[in-house]
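ugh ok fine here u go
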Amino acid sequence: MPSSFTRRCFMSLCASAAVVAAGTRLLGPTVAHAADAPDAFPMPPLPYPENGLEPAISARTISFHYGKHTAAYYGNLNKAVAGTPMATMKLEDVIKSVAGDPAKAGLFNNAAQSWNHTFYWAGMKPGGGGTPPAKVADALSAAFGSVDACVTQLSDAAKTQFASGWAWLAKGRENGKDVLKVLKTGNAETPITQGYTPILTIDVWEHAYYLDYQNKRPDYVQAFFDKLVNWDEVAKRL
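structure:
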């Protein structure tokens, strides 16, 4: 008899796969293209080996999360835009152009999830965590009072996002002033459709952490800040 963890993990992976499959069904008809035609949006390689984030995130998790889920989003996206004007657009512009259109929900989900995941992968590094560089520390202290206060607020957003989604540190303008703020979004939603520019994200879909942490999402979030976050990349994004 399989353990409750095995059943739960299997159900989680199946649910994630169902979301990807549903996105494929919603994409609608696409224009066939030659087998040798390059993808409009090639999936970027991981910026580290599959085992590069161990022990915080296992190679097995990466093999599913990047090799299966992220790859499926990019595959569905490229099928949807092949032979259309969107194939020549920036991915961010594709996302913005179809956001909120129920008829384009499948395209939005796959485009946004492709972008979200690539942004997430680049926000981590082997041996990450630690003290952020002065540029980041100063910006976070100015916006939140301290680095720790920002980390706490972003961690809380990741821990409390109901079901699947993302926690974000993002920049934008409000009332004529530049701001840094913490946001959370459900499913494939992204701050770029809300007028904000993401700085950092934490993926809290179960497939991001369940094989390693089971239902202990707070432990995954803690490991993200202690061992994974790429503060140098955050500095480039500010």
